[in-house]
Design a protein that fits this description.
Blueprint lengths: L2 H40 L4 H23 L3 H16 L13 H21 L3 H21 L2 H16 L6 H23 L5 H11 L1 H16 L10 H4 L1 H4 L11 H29 L5 H20 L6 H15 L16
Helix pairs in contact: 1-2, 1-12, 2-14, 3-4, 3-14, 4-5, 4-6, 4-13, 4-14, 5-6, 6-13, 7-9, 7-12, 7-13, 9-12, 12-13, 13-14
Length: about 350
């Protein structure tokens, strides 16, 4: 490719990058507006959704700035913060996954593992790259020490996916695999809530998830079926769920982002949640960073999406902001590459 062709390719990449940013901004605005609409119609409390939208916007913008200035140090600092928050948070007990904020612990560890692996791929020196990969294995060890089975599995899968990411690999195929994995987990959680699977399949899942979780999932599915257009209103699941009102300890949430959106904001809320995840993958697809960084971040965000479909991870602002921060770092164009030259867009 000659100089003219390289300039044209860089211009097209820059234009696609700008389209991804503009579409993300518009999507966040629609999410906030729909929360206000459903709140006005159902008498809900939109502050949780608005806080999440603000956290995503701030985290993504901060990640873009930090990733441009410090492509190695920024994800390392974010990973350290995530591990500290995970260690300081509540830890899961043995046995079935309990209701509560423990899903945030696993999500924070997954984001930390993904951030360290992204830093390793961005590191210019082989010795530093090796040290960072060992640090990623350390995050896996932290998950084991905290007793977070979901965090352990998620971190291990992220590290393996990062190591398997080949230079010059097909990022579109990898991100399509991330989308498929998220869809399958979401479909499985909905199928359990709808009792659509054979009992031989659902019984082991219910034993692992816990009877309380499945009970509130089914309440959420019933509410979504009864109020498909606008839901019962943001933050009103606890008021409308028979399981919660009869004493199931679910802190007023169904512990599934997908089912919570369906119950509280209807089918449009589900579509907006899916669109938000699709936008993150779209932004990664057009990222100027290397394919290894893109696929590593995609694997980490998919792990968080799976945890959110099965638990209450996204109710923690630290997880929401951390996921957006990682996405921002993975889509930022570093001011300089490892040789001191200004970074160039990756088609």
């Amino acid at each position: 490719m000659g100089p003219t062709g390289a300039v044209a390719a860089a211009g097209r990449a820059e234009e696609r990058h700008a389209v991804a940013d503009a579409s993300g901004l518009a999507l966040l605005a629609v999410c906030a507006a729909w929360a206000l609409v459903t709140s006005a119609l159902g008498g809900g409390r939109p502050d949780g959704v608005l806080l999440a939208v603000l956290a995503v916007a701030a985290g993504y913008a901060g990640g873009r700035i930090a990733g441009a200035l410090l492509p190695v140090a920024a994800p390392c600092a974010g990973a350290l913060a995530g591990v500290v928050l995970a260690v300081a948070g509540p830890h899961p007990a043995a046995g079935p996954a309990p209701l509560g904020p423990v899903g945030a612990t696993a999500a924070l560890l997954c984001l930390s593992a993904g951030a360290v692996c992204c830093a390793a791929w961005a590191a210019p020196a082989p010795a530093l790259r090796l040290c960072l990969r060992l640090a990623a294995l350390g995050v896996v060890g932290v998950a084991a020490l905290l007793g977070s089975a979901a965090g352990l599995v998620g971190c291990a899968v992220i590290v393996l996916c990062s190591l398997a990411a080949a230079p010059g690999g097909h990022r579109a195929a990898g991100l399509a695999g991330c989308a498929l994995a998220a869809v399958l987990v979401g479909a499985a959680s909905w199928a359990v809530a709808d009792d659509a699977l054979p009992r031989a399949v659902t019984a082991p899942l219910e034993d692992r998830l816990g009877a309380h979780r499945v009970e509130v999932w089914r309440d959420a599915e019933d509410l979504a079926a009864a109020h498909p257009a606008f839901g019962v209103g943001p933050g009103r699941f606890g008021d409308a769920s028979p399981a919660v009102t009869h004493g199931v300890p679910a802190d007023g949430k169904p512990h599934s982002a997908l089912l919570q959106q369906a119950a509280e904001q209807g089918v449009v809320g589900v579509a907006l949640l899916a669109a938000a995840f699709a936008w993150l993958l779209f932004a990664l697809w057009h990222s100027p960073r290397s394919t290894q960084v893109v696929l590593t971040a995609g694997a980490a965000l998919t792990a968080v999406a799976a945890l959110a479909a099965l638990g209450n991870a996204l109710s923690a602002t630290s997880v929401t902001a951390g996921a957006a921060l990682l996405a921002g770092i993975a889509t930022a164009r570093p001011l300089e590459d490892g040789t001191g030259r200004r970074g160039a867009p990756v088609p």
